[in-house]
């Protein structure tokens, strides 16, 4: 048994298996840099090109036909975890469409503005961004909703415009990281096969210091008192779907049931208030689903590409390189953080970064006895933080465009994202919170210990 485990542990893989991914990253970066916009290289096209290259390659240690590699690709893309993720993506899109259609988004924003104290308007703006993004599950939607308000505050108070822009983006990334209906949370929990409530518990403990420090820093900023113009109408009944999703998720209800309950609640309230009829409900739900179609298809393609890279030895090679000098859980966590951060910097998409890095992060997690919920949190925290700081990512591009300032000028004022990285690294250094090791992982560790004992005998 010792010899068998030795061969398994020394499986080093082949660098050639990383070539398809490297080609995709180089193609994506070059297109963005030369054209002036990273949106000019659609992720789906880039991943298809990388997948095509991977299909043409072969593993010299385990040769296969083209048809067999196609089967590997299809099985990877059709993995049950990925399929569940796709369904959740679609339902989350439907929920957002229905919630927006029955004015839940407007009610949530206006409620925050109505109770916002004028002497704490900057931390108040950040809190509204946190609540809105946590409820909506989309950083881009939060930026679009709060940007006009932030610009109005800056104009009326003479506050640095990039500062209020950074506040909005920071609040948007809070929900992107923690929301139960965020695509990043869905990706992180599904790739690590953990419950959302377990990931949330570990994640909130890790980012809470960043949240508090950011609020204190914003409260200390000098600002003139301001009264925002306009009447902020809201209906507390309209925020019931958001509250229902949050409560059900926290008590551990299965995520599919949570999404369905949220959609159903939004439909009932929207029909009663006359926001839409039954046909209108189906139409806006469908539009919401369509908004997630690209992400769902990309997730499937990435799953197939990762399966081919695994067959070609790329995943084993990368795992070996990342962990060859790693002797502890702390080193494994740093490897996970570095991997997803680099993926996000290269792709400017935190969800895709998590989907691509997730399987490897899971292997590292199991190898070093790291809690899967902690691993999911690390994936989400570092990908969200860097995505909120990249001047060529969507959040800063949209915010800069609406405010008429350079995205680069906003970067140093997104204090929350910067604090997320700092606090995340401190959390790794001190090993808190550890989280619980799953029964599967306990069994794996027992087997490893048994192998060592039998080998010594």
TrEMBL record:
* Alphabetized Pfam families for the sequence: Na_H_antiporter
Q: How does it sit in the membrane?
A: Multi-pass membrane protein
Q: Does the keyword Transport apply?
A: yes
UniProt domain Na+/H+ antiporter NhaC-like C-terminal: residue ranges: 17-216, 245-431
Output a single Gene Ontology CC term carried by this record. Answer: plasma membrane
> Which family does this protein fall into?
Belongs to the NhaC Na(+)/H(+) (TC 2.A.35) antiporter family.
What protein is this chain from? Sodium:proton antiporter
């Amino acid at each position: 048994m010792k010899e068998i485990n030795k061969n398994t542990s020394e499986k080093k893989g082949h660098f050639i298996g990383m070539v398809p991914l490297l080609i995709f990253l180089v193609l994506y970066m070059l297109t963005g840099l030369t054209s002036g916009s990273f949106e000019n290289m659609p992720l789906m096209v880039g991943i298809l090109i990388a997948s095509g290259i991977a299909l043409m390659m072969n593993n010299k240690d385990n040769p296969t036909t083209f048809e067999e590699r196609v089967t590997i690709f299809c099985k990877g893309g059709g993995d049950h975890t990925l399929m569940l993720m796709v369904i959740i993506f679609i339902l989350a899109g439907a929920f957002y469409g229905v919630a927006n259609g029955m004015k839940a988004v407007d009610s949530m924003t206006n409620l925050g503005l109505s109770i916002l104290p004028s002497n704490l308007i900057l931390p108040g703006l950040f809190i509204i961004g946190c609540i809105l993004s946590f409820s909506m599950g989309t950083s881009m939607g939060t930026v679009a909703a709060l940007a006009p308000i932030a610009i109005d505050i800056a104009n009326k108070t003479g506050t640095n415009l990039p500062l209020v822009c950074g506040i909005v983006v920071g609040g948007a990334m809070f929900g992107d990281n923690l929301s139960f209906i965020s695509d990043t949370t869905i990706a992180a929990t599904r790739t690590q096969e953990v419950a959302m409530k377990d990931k949330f518990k570990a994640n909130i403990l890790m980012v809470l210091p960043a949240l508090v420090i950011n609020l204190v820093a914003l409260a200390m900023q000098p600002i003139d008192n301001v009264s925002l113009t306009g009447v902020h109408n809201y209906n507390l009944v309209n925020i019931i779907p958001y509250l229902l999703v949050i409560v059900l998720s926290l008590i551990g209800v299965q995520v599919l049931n949570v999404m369905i309950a949220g959609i159903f609640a939004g439909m009932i309230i929207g029909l009663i208030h006359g926001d839409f009829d039954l046909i209108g409900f189906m139409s806006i739900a469908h539009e919401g689903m369509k908004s997630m179609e690209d992400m769902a298809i990309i997730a499937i393609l990435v799953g197939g590409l990762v399966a081919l890279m695994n067959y070609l030895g790329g995943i084993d090679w990368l795992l070996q390189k990342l962990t060859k000098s790693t002797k502890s859980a702390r080193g494994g966590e740093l490897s996970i953080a570095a991997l997803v951060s680099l993926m996000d910097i290269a792709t400017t998409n935190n969800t895709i970064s998590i989907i691509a890095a997730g399987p490897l992060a899971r292997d590292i997690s199991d190898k070093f006895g790291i809690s899967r919920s902690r691993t999911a949190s690390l994936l989400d925290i570092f990908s969200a933080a860097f995505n909120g700081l990249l001047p060529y990512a969507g959040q800063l591009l949209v915010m800069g465009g609406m405010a008429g300032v350079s995205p680069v000028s906003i970067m140093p004022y997104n204090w929350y994202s910067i604090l997320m990285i700092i606090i995340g690294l401190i959390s790794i250094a001190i090993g808190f919170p550890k989280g619980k090791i799953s029964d599967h992982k306990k069994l794996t560790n027992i087997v490893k210990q048994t192998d060592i004992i039998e080998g010594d005998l």
